[in-house]
Write a structure and sequence with these properties.
The protein has a single domain, classed as Porin (Beta Barrel). Strand 2 and strand 3 form a beta hairpin. The protein contains 4 helices and 18 strands. The radius of gyration is 24 Å and the shape is globular. It is mainly beta. The strands form 2 sheets. A 16-stranded antiparallel β-barrel has the order 1-2-3-4-5-6-7-8-9-12-13-14-15-16-17-18. A two-stranded antiparallel ribbon has the order 10-11.
Amino acid sequence: MKMRYALLFILCVVPLLAQEKSFTPGGKFSGLMYSDYYYNFSRDALFGGTPPPNAAVSSNAPGATAMQAFQIRRVYLTYDYEIAEQLTTRFRLEVDQAANASNGKIGSFVKDAYLKWKNIFAGSDLIVGIQPTPTYDVSETTWGYRSLEKTIMDLRGIVPSRDQGVSLKGKLTGNGSVNYWLMFANNSANSPETDKYKRYYGHIQVKPLTGLQATLNIDYRAAADIRNRFTNTSVSNDILTSSLFMSYGEAGKYSLAVEGFMMSTSNGYDNGTSLASKSGLGISVFGNLNLSSDLVLVGRFDNYDPNTDETAAGDVRNYIIGGLDWKVAKNVSIIPNVLYETYEAPRTGSAPDASLTGRVTFYYTF
């Protein structure tokens, strides 16, 4: 009998102990920073130093004509820790000028705080906590120059870059040519939740050929009903956003990508006679070309119309970014760049003057 129990112990317990000894928990710190010196060559006097509605250039380079300054736009400090072979965590702090502290100084906040259960089933990971959202994670990675600007849906506030919830992501095919990502979250970005309404994200990514990929995204945001002043009834104010991203490129040589989205807000536009659906459209074309091992030419064009109704003329924006990335070292770049934004004319009157900003961006990771 004792021999039987001893054999059972050897067969069942010893392999588990050996498996535990084969893994050593551990973590590491990493981070990044990008900052600029900028000079505003042109701003319409009507703005008075305040960005016009839906402006892009002014959000990164505030102030009127001739305003100049050094600024810190982002600092990350990240700690990744492997608890077990299938369990990892990430905690990330962000520091930037937009996160002002109560005393007016540069503030900080929790950017990421999540637990990942890798391979919860074959080819799929489960993630819980404050984490990236699926909608433009692929396009931002392909763009590769968050140091210059957010991708269009992040820039225009269409979808948050982070949310708190649970997601499931992984491969639908063994070779990773078809991938998926589903997420259920608060719709509160990095802030605590304040209501019962939630957000539902999903995307499918297809990579049919080397260097070619496409991603289809669907994003549904539930919201409280609003009062229709014309019918004195409660009506929906939910938002549905769909987007498509495609890119082609060769690593270390070039890339070209296009991203477009359509956002529909139920009863989101009061046209003076009724409540109508509000439709917003955006398209972004961007790419880069390696001129040498340490010089990369970067360019981008965005067109954004937050309300396509013809009665809402005057809100369309065109945004152009051009830059030259000088890779001083493996993890250090100095990027002279130009930001140029034009504005649609209103139904009556002329269009505001374009905004033009010159910058030198300093970027490094560690």
